[in-house]
Amino acid sequence: MEHSIFIHILSMLVIAIVAIALLRRLGLPAILAYLLTGVVSGPSGFHWFTQLQMQSVAELGVVLLMFTLGLEFSVPRLWAMRRTVFGLGSTQMLVTAFVAGGIAMLVGQNLVAAVVIGSAIALSSTAIVLKLLNEQNWLRRRHGELSVSVLLFQDLAVVPLLILMPLLANGGTEMSFNSIAWGLLTGILAFLGLMSFGKWILPRIFDEVARSRSNELFVLSTLVVALVTGAFTQWLGLSMALGAFIAGMLLGESQYRRQLEADIRPFRDLLMGLFFISIGMLLDFNLVMQYWWQVILILVGVVLSKILIIYGLLRLVGENVKIALSTAISLGQVGEFSFVLLALAVNYQLLDTEVSTVLVAVAVISMSMAPWLIRHSVDIAKKVSGNKQPSKQDPIEIVLPHSDESDVVLILGYGRVGQTIARFLKTEAVPYMVLDLDPTRVSEARAAGENIHFGDACKMALLKKIGIRQASLVVVTFCEPRQSEECLAVARKLAPDVKILVRTRDDANLHELKEAGATQVIPESLEGSLMLVSQVLYKCGVPLPRIIKRLESERRNHYQYLHGFFSGTETDFTLDLLHAVSLASGASAVGKTVADIPWQALDVELRAVRRKGEEIDPPPPDWIIRRNDILMLVGKPRSIEKAEEYLLQG
């Protein structure tokens, strides 16, 4: 039996992988692949699992999704966009929900079902719209800004809807105003309680966790906080997702926000995939085929009505035709949170399975159409408005100023070196962003207004989130070789063309780091030597341009004259040494040319030859070696010994 379940799980995952790969090639969202997987593996397909079996695990996906949504919730950003968010967003939600709910009641649905249906249809897909607007570089255009405002309010509106859903599930009796008011009051009290907990206790917990420098402990603590707050709100009779949202919001203003999001994302994506698979199991193709004309009719009605409502509202507030229509087309689909509401409604027996199946089918098809509609929204708006050549003053073409997190210098590590670099960049008005793993340092720097975030620079998801692909330069300032190599590998994989400067203590890993993709490696000890040399030469009267030219030559040649030194009592056998070999009259190398000696096979470099007090640096290949010449060799100690034996004895 257990073996059979394992085979079924493996088969389901294989189907999901194949479906995602195929649909991504077609430009369709991965959500559709998960839904298709659910249809194939559910009751309508092979019947490997039922929706009830997937429900508990799938609910965790919603919990983590709400947690990450809370992390993205920014009070300053919300306040800056308050007019469009609370004005346009709330009006769109209320009008769309009222129209959809009213039509639902006209066709025979009760009040509770009408509220659920109206709320589900009023929501749009945040994931799809933001992804496509970003791909088209439209987020800073006017219609992109309006779309983001509406989506932000819709995401916020999910919170009271999550509070409302359990209250509507009262055994089929009529809704009581007192019960709803009590539920909302309970939700407010829970919110205030968790806010107090989050303000005084959560930061201290994560400060201690961060000081441990244990990635496993950080991930585990994040999961526990999300699930414990969810369990607390569920204990109060509310939704688990509500508690997770509040926990995310509490941590969203902390320095740990980006690290938390990077750590939680793999779990969220996996569990959300299972959630959408469970939604797909609700799809009964026989039922969909039975009501196929209703599905098409509702689909056309939903998309057109949402477009018309949003277009009308934007025209009322003075937006021009192109902006209003392109915004409306972008928001015409049904969103992923609609699946959450519909699934909860079925679980609470607020909605018939047949109605839910039809609405899920409508949502799936509308989301399938969304990529094409969004990509062509501006073109459609231009054709409808009859203005094919937009003027230079057209607001839809205006690009807002770059945000703090695009086209910046990314400093990884904020110790003394990182802070020094940041101070000089600030003086020259060069924008920068910093990532550091010391919680105290991050807290102090954030308090001083620095653009710094807590996080592990070796995390691929975190570097991707902070926008390494848009960075103009990446500077790795920490000196631990393994950490630098790991960070460099991840950064180069995410951003193949970005310039990356890496700081090291010495030249031990210089070539390895260059081969790993570093644009330039700056060994601290060698650069210190160069700075001292420049001062010495300057004090000796050497012209400054000549000094600068010589220093740049050393850097271009990978510090050629700074490799290899005479060994002392404490010799580091991992570094190149400089060794002088004096050739007596009977030495094997006497009489040979420099080219006759197999330097490459000996794994050493002939740095210079000293003859009668003069140094030839470097000697030409046809230089004939004579007795009493002193050969200056550079190489590892064992190679030096081998070369000396060859030069003296052959």
What secondary-structure arrangement, pairings included, does this model have?
Blueprint (H helix, E strand, L loop, with lengths): L1 H24 L4 H12 L9 H22 L2 H6 L1 H25 L4 H12 L3 H10 L6 H27 L8 H24 L1 H10 L3 H21 L4 H13 L4 H26 L2 H6 L1 H25 L4 H10 L5 H12 L5 H23 L1 H9 L23 E4 L3 H12 L4 E5 L2 H9 L4 E3 L5 H6 L7 E4 L4 H14 L4 E6 L5 H7 L3 E4 H16 L4 H13 L20 E6 L16 H4 L2 E7 L2 E3 L13 E6 L1 H13 L1
Parallel strand pairs: 1-2, 1-4, 2-3, 4-5, 5-6
Antiparallel strand pairs: 7-10, 8-9, 8-10
Protein name: Potassium transporter
Keywords: Antiport, Ion transport, Membrane, Potassium, Potassium transport, Transmembrane, Transmembrane helix, Transport
InterPro entries: Cation/H_exchanger_TM, K/H_exchanger, Na+/solute_symporter_sf, NAD(P)-bd_dom_sf, RCK_C, RCK_C_sf, RCK_N
Kindly identify the CATH topology of the largest domain: Na+/H+ antiporter like fold
Alpha carbon gap, first and last residue: 75 Å
Low-confidence stretches: 388-405, 565-574
Task: Please report the number of helical segments.
Answer: 28
Helix content: 55-70%
Instruction: Report the mean per-residue pLDDT as an integer.
Output: 78
- Largest sheet: number of strands, sense, barrel closure: 6 strands, parallel
Strands side by side in the biggest sheet = 3-2-1-4-5-6
Q: From the alpha-carbon coordinates, what is the Rg to the nearest angstrom? A: 33 Å
Structural class: alpha/beta
Give the domain tally. Answer: 3
- The CATH class assignment of the largest domain is Mainly Alpha
Number of strands: 10
